[in-house]
Amino acid sequence: MKKLRHIMKVVLPLVFILYWGGITLFAHSHVVNGVIIVHSHPFKAGHQHTPSEAETILFLDHYAMPAVPPLEPAWLCFSILLALLVIPRAIQLCLPQTDAGIRLRAPPCRVF
């Protein structure tokens, strides 16, 4: 469980940084039949796309969903991920109760 949490702490920010860098740093445009198509991918400048690739990029750029899809599967995955990251941390914050010894003052305590 700790290994999975450690891997997720490294992999998820890395995936976000790579995605953000890919759409930000590699944006370029092509003129196809008088239409400017702007997209991003990490290829060298001076490349060309086939007409079918340009059409696919154009359709994906102008795609609009008519309704919001059901979010139950996404919410379930998000809840499981949140539980994996938060619950073990909350368990580690609990102080063990021991009955050994005389305590002259109460230990510092914080409830989150």
Overview of the molecule:
By secondary structure, the chain is mostly helical. 51% of the residues lie in helices and 11% in strands. It contains 3 helices and 2 strands; from the N terminus they run αββαα. A two-stranded antiparallel ribbon has the order 1-2. The two termini are 23 Å apart.
Topology:
Elements: H1 2-25, E1 27-32, E2 35-40, H2 51-61, H3 72-93
What general outline do the C-alpha atoms trace? Answer: elongated
Average pLDDT level:
75
Number of helices: 3
Rg over CA atoms, rounded to whole Å, is 25 Å
Transmembrane segments: 73-95
Keywords: Membrane, Transmembrane, Transmembrane helix
Task: Give a concise summary.
With 112 residues, the protein is mostly helical. The chain has helices spanning 2-25, 51-61, 72-93; strands at residues 27-32, 35-40.
Feature tags:
mainly alpha; 11% strand; 112 residues; transmembrane helix; transmembrane; membrane
